[in-house]
Amino acid sequence: MAGPLPLGDPAPSDGRLPDDLPIDLGVPFSAYxxxxxxxxxxxxxxxxxxxxxxxRGAKQEDYASxxxxxxxxxxxVLSQAGALRPMDTVFFGGxxxxxxxxxxxxxxxxAAASAFGLVEGAEVTVEANPDTxxxxxxxxxxxxxxxxxxxxxxxxxxxxxxxxxxxHRPENVRTAVAAAKDAGLAVSVDLIYGAxxxxxxxxxxxxxxxxxxxxxxxxxYALIIEDGTKLARQIRRGEVPTPDDDLQADMYELxxxxxxxxxxxxxxxxxxxxxxxxRTAEQNRSRHNLAYWRGSDWWGFGPGAHSHVAGLRWxxxxxxxxxxxxxAASESPxxxxxxxxxxxxxxxxxxxxxxxxxGIAIDEVSxxxxxxxxxxxxxxxxxxxxxxxxxVQLTLRGRLMADAVVRELTD
Length: 411
Prior knowledge:
Layout lengths: L28 E7 L27 H18 L6 E8 L7 H15 L1 E11 L6 H10 L3 E7 L3 H6 L6 H13 L3 E8 L6 H13 L4 E6 L7 H7 L8 H17 L2 E5 L2 E4 L12 H7 L3 E5 L4 E4 L2 E5 L3 H9 L5 E5 L3 H12 L6 E2 L5 H4 L2 H6 L5 H5 L2 E2 L3 H5 L1 H9 L1
Helix pairs in contact: 1-2, 1-10, 2-3, 3-5, 6-8
């Protein structure tokens, strides 16, 4: 289970939005549907997820109907606020959404589409564990309107999967990807690098295996040790080594080089897309994740899910049982809310936009901090050609030191 929810102001029991909220109907709207169930908790994971023994009063078989109750609430709230818009993207995340029957995911998607509508060509993604994707599951999801499957490959090396507490076998990834592609779904594969005991050769083998899958999108995330996880406890006890920052940097550079050579373009620090299956590399980017990075509006459905509309943020109670109880009582499941001030919003905007390929306009940075761009160029962190055109765009070295760039632009 994840750590504590953030502090904030009390959320209204009816979920109503403030009357003075400056809602812009031209801003895209997305939906995130959280499915908080896992068969086994991975040692590195601090997401708000639950195994069967941790549910205590909640049932997986009731979950779709419960979440649809929040969809009905959101429709009412957004209608009252004059903020109802069709969804540009929908993302089923977790947990493992595909632990639920595909028909349950289809019911939730149908409810959201009926409540809000979908723009033409909307992107609808489902995260999946390779063990849970069969041809029948993939066909059912495709028939329901899902367009994209994001498959948690993580590694192709058995001892690395074991270090991450992943239970699938490497060959299951191939069958899951094949099932998704046969159903007409776009496919992304997710990788993690820097696991205890993973060598550069291990990581290279995983990259090569991912490229052999002929997917159109690859994500590669550095392993981060989160407080409260099993892996953090193992490191604290000296049972496994702390990830090596220099090795992780070498792994990132290797991934970028191999992916670029295979025709993949980076568009966010940890994400690459390629032209494939009749779509351009830009079309194969994750539009849902770009909505987060660009500060669009979204409603997060499910326990612990976070939402954002016109600068207002709120988050739901964490446990599935508490979430279900709130909705059964016709109350909002929101646990807290906040409305960041202008300085906080600017900091977040620079933090997020600097991570994507297009970067951020220099004139969005404060005048005092704009003077630091020249130093960032001299240090090889920012592209000089883009800077001349008025944008801060990270170089490869800058991507490795993205946090340092943000500090220079915001301190």
